[in-house]
Write a structure and sequence with these properties.
Helix content: 10-25%
Strand content: 35-45%
Radius of gyration: 13 Å
CATH class: Alpha Beta
Structural class: alpha+beta
CATH superfamily: Phosphorylase Kinase, domain 1
Length: about 90
């Protein structure tokens, strides 16, 4: 968590929010999806694990690149760090 500084919220969904970040070491932009998993069912938690596993294995120019995940078990939160796409999303 100390590696990044949150710049702004850029989106919100049913599982959490997405924030733009900068990496403190070089000011490179990233984003993370913040997921509060405390209230989720076992099936929903398994879907999150599946998403992380899938993202971590993908490497294609048209797919947002996975960087790392940060798990805060005491807060029941997962942060999925990904590359930041300057031009927005498909919507």
């Amino acid at each position: 968590m100390d590696k990044y500084t949150v710049v702004q919220e850029i989106g919100k969904g049913s599982y959490g929010a997405v924030y733009k970040l900068t990496r403190n070491s070089d000011q490179k932009p990233f984003c993370w999806k913040e997921i509060n998993y405390g209230h989720l069912s076992e099936k929903e938690r398994a879907q999150i694990v599946s998403e992380i596993n899938c993202l971590s294995k993908l490497n294609h120019n048209n797919i947002v690149k996975y960087v790392e995940e940060i798990v805060l078990r005491d807060q029941k939160k997962i942060y999925i760090v990904m590359e930041f796409c300057e031009n927005g999303d498909m919507a």
